[in-house]
Amino acid sequence: MLSVVGYRFKLTTDNRQLKIILKKNDTFITAKPISEKISRYISYYYFYTSEDENYQKSFVFYPNYKHALTAYKDSEVLLTDSESIVNPSDKITIKPLYSINKDKSIKVSMNGCFDKIGIVFNPLGINHFIEKPLQNIFPQNFDFFSHLGNDFNKVLQNVFSQKQIVKKVSLLDYFFEKKYIPFDEPILKKSVKAIITSNGAIKVSELSEELNVNRKTLLRLFKKHTNMSVEEYRKMVMFRQALNYFHQSKEKTNLTDVALFSMYYDQAHFIKHFKSITQETPTTLLSKISHLGEEDTYWYFEN
Asked: DSSP assignment, residue 94?
């Protein structure tokens, strides 16, 4: 048993999935794609459900270079600039949401019973399943996403009806294998890899020189296919790598170590950047964030 943020978690794990029972009738499960091809573009799936009609909980998620496509079954989802509110609905409906969370905290308030699927893409993963540049079809940072077509909603409906996780994963893998579209932007791919490998430390000028590409071309590619500037992508990577590193090493590290690993100038720079996103200092918030599943899902449960 494991205790996180006041809850008792029961863990059941094998090579592919880990199940967390947040409280009675609530579960959170992560699972890797089975398809080797799809695993290049999708990091993992998660399945989050509650059968508690009195469920009422809010959590906050933070910037990540792995972006998520999520969907709720038979729920009404209300969106604001910084929050989504999920309530049960009598209507049979599925509305996928996509999040490009680059520089702020986003709150999710969930009430009553729900059934949620999350598809967490590797960097540039979503670009292999859409027919146009991301900026052309999704200029927002957080909104409903209809660009995988009605077939996607039909597959989701089938996935929701399955009880076994392996069947859910197989259905999703099969859909994305059929939906796959080659995405051939080698300069962008190398740039993103370099930024992540450097923990966000590499500068635009260094990327331009290293890849022998014009600075303006680099900026255009990022905006066109990620909805971000290179600088925004760098800062997002720095923040996320710091968050991941802290939670993976918190028993043997301190904030100075985290700041240095994440390539901040110093601890003051780290704290300033962290507060600009979360409105809290790292010391205050990092210890309150919950790690769900085996992957890099880190949420702060407010209640």
From this structure: B
Q: Which residues contact 93 (CB under 8 A, 6 or more apart)?
A: 74, 75
For residue 43, what are its two tokens? 């990091």
CA distance 271 to 170: 42
Percent of the chain residues topping a pLDDT of 90? 56
Tell me the whole-structure pTM to 2 decimals.
0.87
**What is the dihedral sign for C-alpha 172, 140, 104, 249?**
positive
Pairing relation of β-strands 97-99 and 142-144? antiparallel
* Paired tokens of 137: 């079809």
Of the candidates 216, 233, 224, 65, the one whose C-alpha atom is nearest the C-alpha of residue 135 is 224
Q: Do the Cβ atoms of 292 and 20 come closer than 8 Å?
A: yes
Residues 279 and 214: beta-carbon distance below 8 Å: no
CA distances from residue 225 to 38, 122, 164, 243 in whole angstroms, order as listed: 19, 14, 35, 25
What 190-194 contacts at long range (C-beta under 8 Å, 24+ apart), as own/partner pairs, is 191/218, 191/221, 191/222, 191/230, 192/65, 192/123, 192/124, 192/226, 192/233, 193/123
What is the model's pLDDT at position 75? 93
Residue 301 — very low, low, confident or very high, per pLDDT cuts 50/70/90?
confident
CA nearest 299: which of 278, 269, 272?
A: 278
- Among residues 127, 137, 153, which one has the least CA distance to residue 72? 153
Quick: pLDDT tens for 77-100.
999 888 899 999 988 789 899 999
Structural domains in the chain, CATH included, are: 2-182+292-301 (no CATH), 186-281 (1.10.10.60)
Mean pLDDT of 66-85: 91
Tens of pLDDT, residue by residue over 214-248, are: 999 999 999 999 999 999 999 899 888 888 887 77
Q: How confident is the model at residue 25 (pLDDT cuts 50, 70, 90)?
A: low
Rounded CA separation 62/83 (Å): 12
